Recover the amino acids of this structure.
């Protein structure tokens, strides 16, 4: 009891101190008074044109004013040093002083517009980061006065390293002179390793502290969360009163999670009931923070449906992730591909590689010697992040080669392949498999279709609702009916699915992956070519970088322009 009381006192004290700092910053950073600016200590003159200004708590207020006025904003990054000093151009300091306390119409300069992108893992190189950098590219292109402030915890990477990685990984060449990095110290608070118990609650608290730190180090005009840390929104909404743009990849907690507990076999146990209450309370606060969002964007129909049911007070739109489909499409006049299927996925349990191996083994066992076709070779391609992932791959090999006795020439495992090798597999193979249940989007499935593969995917979430959809080639739009003339891929379900009973009882129930292997093996080359062509057209239109630009301008930039007016 004493321990719990101590923890609560520490949490409340921390929140109180955060709000005190926020209130002071909020009061001064938009229209600082001359008196407030005189509190900054000019530590020494570095040279005739540069001053070194020192402040322990309110350097962020000054950084905001300088970024608004500066024509070379990159000078005001904190460059991962966390110093209490800031090198300032003398002329820009004089301009800030001269404008102290003036209204917007009285200022001696035209404001830059500062867009804060809250993405503590901006250098990770995944699909979420691709959304971040494409959004930044679109914002910078929209107006020469727009400046991107990137809040990151990647203190081990310099500004140039991060931007080089963006160019190498995603092929985006940003206007670097308008990209400012603000490094954060408290990113560890949002790591699940920091909170081995009460993880959701711990990460929510950590995201609030991290948001406060970001705002303290550099206030902005617009707050854009592209990583999914909604529990920092109250600090931004109530203290800074700025528009919040939320790009949600998947909900922090969903009704599916609650239902899974409610209808589980252990639903009557004390532990399960306590967890259900804990998650329900968490859901209540998740609903509340959603009401603070000005522009809500999601990455897929599945995510959008969940967010709409949770954030009922916030209108949500879908902007599909930029998948660079333009770079994967190749011109083909006929079907001339190898009889092999690619599984492009990180080597993790939730990708269900075991299910693919099991179903393929069943398919091989049922092959008749009279069949006039060869079984497709399966190639697993994915990255390994740790030794656990490498051990996982070895277990898959034992399952395939020893337990199920699948011939090695029919199954191959490729780890950590360079991107050019991955593109080669995509362009020479016939099929692409995705077995994950309820994958919120599925960028690998988009890459399958763009590269000309025939997708064999689980009938759920993003692949079912957004990607492998029927396509009308004549009118170049999504068709209403899925048939042999509109099909862009094949779907399967499994007895291992959490919702298998409900799905299997559906009148339009899908086959197993074993049956899908048999079905696609019987396709002729003309049928394969037509399915591939429809899939390419579909994803080229729905998931291109150009489509992302168009939708971001429509649903985000235009809405923010209305807010400013």
């Amino acid at each position: 009891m004493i321990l719990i009381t101590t923890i609560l006192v520490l949490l409340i004290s921390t929140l109180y101190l955060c709000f005190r700092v926020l209130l002071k910053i909020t009061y001064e950073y938009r229209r600082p008074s001359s008196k407030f600016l005189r509190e900054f200590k000019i530590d020494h003159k570095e040279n005739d044109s540069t001053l070194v200004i020192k402040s322990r708590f309110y350097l962020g207020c000054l950084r905001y004013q300088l970024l608004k006025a500066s024509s070379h904003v990159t000078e005001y990054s904190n460059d991962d040093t966390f110093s209490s000093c800031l090198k300032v151009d003398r002329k820009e300091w004089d301009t800030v002083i001269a404008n102290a306390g003036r209204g917007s119409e009285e200022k001696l300069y035209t404001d830059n517009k500062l867009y804060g992108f809250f993405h503590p893992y901006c250098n990770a190189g995944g699909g979420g980061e691709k959304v971040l950098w494409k959004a930044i590219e679109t914002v910078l292109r929209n107006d020469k006065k727009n400046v991107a402030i990137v809040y990151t915890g990647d203190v081990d990477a310099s500004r140039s390293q991060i931007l080089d990685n963006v160019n190498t990984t995603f092929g985006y060449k940003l206007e670097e002179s308008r990209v400012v990095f603000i490094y954060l110290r408290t990113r560890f608070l949002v790591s699940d390793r920091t909170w081995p118990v009460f993880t959701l609650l711990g990460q929510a608290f950590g995201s609030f502290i991290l948001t406060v730190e970001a705002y303290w180090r550099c206030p902005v005009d617009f707050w854009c969360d592209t990583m999914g840390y909604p529990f920092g929104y109250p600090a931004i909404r109530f203290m800074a009163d700025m528009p919040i743009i939320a790009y949600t990849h998947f909900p922090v907690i969903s009704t599916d999670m609650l239902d899974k507990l409610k209808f589980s076999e252990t639903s009557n146990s004390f532990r399960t009931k306590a967890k259900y209450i804990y998650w329900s309370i968490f859901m209540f606060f998740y609903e509340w923070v959603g009401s603070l969002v000005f522009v809500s964007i999601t990455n897929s129909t599945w995510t959008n449906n969940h967010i709409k049911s949770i954030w009922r007070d916030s209108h949500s739109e879908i902007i599909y992730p930029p998948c660079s489909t333009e770079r994967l499409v190749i011109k083909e006049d006929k079907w001339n591909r190898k009889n092999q299927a690619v599984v492009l996925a990180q080597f993790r349990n939730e990708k269900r590689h075991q299910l693919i191996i099991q179903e393929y083994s069943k398919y091989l066992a049922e092959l008749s010697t009279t069949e006039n076709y060869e079984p497709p070779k399966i190639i697993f391609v994915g990255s390994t992040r740790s030794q656990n992932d490498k051990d996982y791959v070895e277990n898959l090999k034992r399952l395939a080669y020893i337990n199920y006795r699948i011939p090695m020439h029919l199954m191959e495992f490729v780890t950590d392949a360079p991107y050019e090798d991955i593109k080669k597999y995509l362009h020479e193979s016939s099929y692409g498999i995705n077995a994950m249940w309820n994958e919120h989007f599925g960028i690998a499935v988009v890459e399958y279709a763009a590269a000309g593969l025939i997708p064999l995917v689980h009938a759920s979430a993003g692949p079912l609702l957004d990607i492998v959809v029927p396509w009308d080639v004549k009118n170049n739009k999504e068709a209403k009916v899925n048939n042999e003339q509109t099909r862009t891929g094949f779907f399967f379900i499994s007895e291992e699915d959490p919702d298998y009973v409900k799905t299997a009882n559906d009148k339009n129930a899908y086959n197993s992956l074993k049956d899908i292997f048999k079905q696609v093996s019987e396709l002729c080359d003309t049928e394969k070519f037509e399915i591939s062509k429809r899939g390419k057209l579909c994803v080229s239109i729905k998931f291109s970088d150009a489509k992302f630009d168009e939708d971001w301008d429509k649903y985000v930039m235009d809405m923010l322009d209305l807010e400013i007016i």
Observations:
- The chain has 20 helices and 18 strands.
- The chain has a mean pLDDT of 86.
- The longest helix spans residues 2-29.
